[in-house]
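Inverse folding, one chain.
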């Protein structure tokens, strides 16, 4: 028995040595300059945005790392810059029957790490739902990403002509911090667990554009806190965004179903405008609530499924 064990150990070590040596050879000799240009060209073609990558190289054990990434819309109205982006495959997870992929984005002085894993058997059957999703953010700036997204939404062909100028004029700044870690079971959501605790430090809603003429809104609270237990996503009551003239508070839960679109909502969302924002946009709240005495406050009860939500305002 001891001889068989030693033999199995020798074979395992030889296989691991082969993979390590092969991967090292590939990492050293791979033409990353050619890959950089090919990736940039394919992304430009697929998205319609201009994508430029300053450099690309290997990321151990298997993966790639890019630096100085610049993404710009064709009309030049919006752009996004990242100092670095790394994507790698976690080989050790293969021995547990899963495929793990991790990524890291660097911007400013912050970082955003994301890790996902998929069951190999599930993937072979055509299922692509992740078994685990983990996020860790450290002082990751959202200015560029949010601004890029808002500008794209404002310039979209189907953008509402009344809303588009507002989207183009609004800006958001802040640094994302916190963690989220979920173990997911798509077939039996009751077995899913996890929690999220994410917050924005120094969050500011920028409204000082000349077309708006409003003061910027610095948030005293910008927090999303939730947990997954007993088959439900439960939003903590402490979650919300609070500034001097703007409040958005929410709580409730989402009852998970194997078919994600059938998951049941039971949420309450409270939105309130104060002072200058209420004077300028309060009429919109009155129009939604059907009341001239809403005082800039809108409360929504959201029920139904994710595919067909039912919203009641009061």
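Residues assigned per position:
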């Amino acid at each position: 028995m001891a001889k068989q064990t030693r033999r199995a150990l020798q074979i395992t070590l030889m296989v691991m040595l082969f993979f390590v040596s092969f991967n090292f050879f590939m990492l050293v000799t791979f033409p990353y300059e050619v890959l950089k240009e090919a990736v940039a060209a394919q992304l430009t073609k697929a998205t319609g945005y201009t994508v430029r990558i300053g450099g690309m190289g290997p990321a151990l054990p298997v993966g790639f790392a890019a630096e100085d990434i610049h993404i710009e819309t064709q009309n030049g109205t919006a752009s996004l810059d990242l100092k670095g982006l790394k994507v790698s495959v976690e080989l050790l997870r293969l021995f547990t029957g899963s495929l793990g992929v991790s990524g890291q984005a660097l911007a400013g002085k912050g970082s955003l790490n994301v890790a996902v894993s998929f069951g190999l058997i599930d993937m072979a059957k055509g299922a692509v739902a992740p078994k685990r999703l983990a996020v860790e953010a450290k002082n990751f700036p959202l200015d560029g990403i949010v601004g890029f997204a808002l500008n794209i939404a404002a310039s979209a062909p189907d953008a509402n002509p009344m809303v588009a100028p507002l989207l183009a004029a609004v800006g958001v700044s802040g640094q994302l911090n916190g963690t989220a870690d979920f173990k997911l079971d798509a077939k039996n959501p009751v077995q899913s667990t996890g929690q999220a605790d994410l917050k924005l430090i120094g969050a500011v809603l920028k409204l000082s554009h000349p077309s708006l003429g409003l003061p910027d809104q610095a948030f005293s609270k910008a927090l999303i806190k939730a947990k997954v237990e007993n088959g439900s996503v439960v939003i903590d009551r402490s979650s919300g965004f609070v500034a001097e003239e703007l409040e958005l508070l929410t709580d409730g839960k989402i009852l998970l179903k194997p078919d994600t679109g059938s998951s049941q909502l039971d949420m309450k969302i409270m939105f309130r405008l104060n002072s200058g924002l209420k004077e300028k946009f309060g009429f919109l709240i009155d129009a939604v609530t059907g009341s001239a005495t809403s005082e800039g406050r809108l409360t929504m009860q959201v029920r139904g499924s994710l595919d067909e939500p039912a919203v009641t305002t009061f």
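The two ends are 74 Å apart (CA to CA). Residues 33 and 237 are 50 Å apart (CA to CA).
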